Amino acid sequence: MSHSHGEARFCVRCGGGLAPRRVEGKTRPACVVCRYVVFEDPKVAVVVMLTDGDRLLLVKRSREPGKGHWALPGGFLDSGEDPREAAVREALEETRLDVEVTELIDIWAEAPALGGATLVIAFRAAQRGGELRASDDAADAAFFALDALPPLAFESTRRAIELMRRA
Ligand SMILES: [Zn+2]
Description:
Elements: E1 18-23, E2 26-31, E3 43-52, E4 55-61, E5 70-71, E6 74-76, H1 83-95, E7 97-110, E8 118-130, E9 138-145, H2 155-166
The protein binds zinc ion.
């Protein structure tokens, strides 16, 4: 399976040059030599919404993208990984909390960012154990009241919080 993104310049099959070509209703990179077409797959990310009363758990990003800003715990799915298991894994990695996914909030596509389109799956979760401590790519982790949120890192963070407010 090819996983080329917008920046690919050469064909993964023959090394020929890529040029835009209209294929199945969309302009896609295609090889000028062997006609191989690059279909860009979305990268799938999960985010976790864990509340304590009316406060929401956020993590401060220690790396780009969004370094220094706050986001929901989450990250990209590994190939073949169950989305709910990915949500539990990411929450544990970033906050050391054991969580259980309780509800699917929504799924949406985001504008292409950082090497490809992204499909975001937002889950609500409940804490089952662990003690809050930032780790992995989180510089800090804390609960915030919805009317006193810190600077947010991503559009997906804002969107998920908006969905939660309306629920
Ligand atoms: Zn080719």
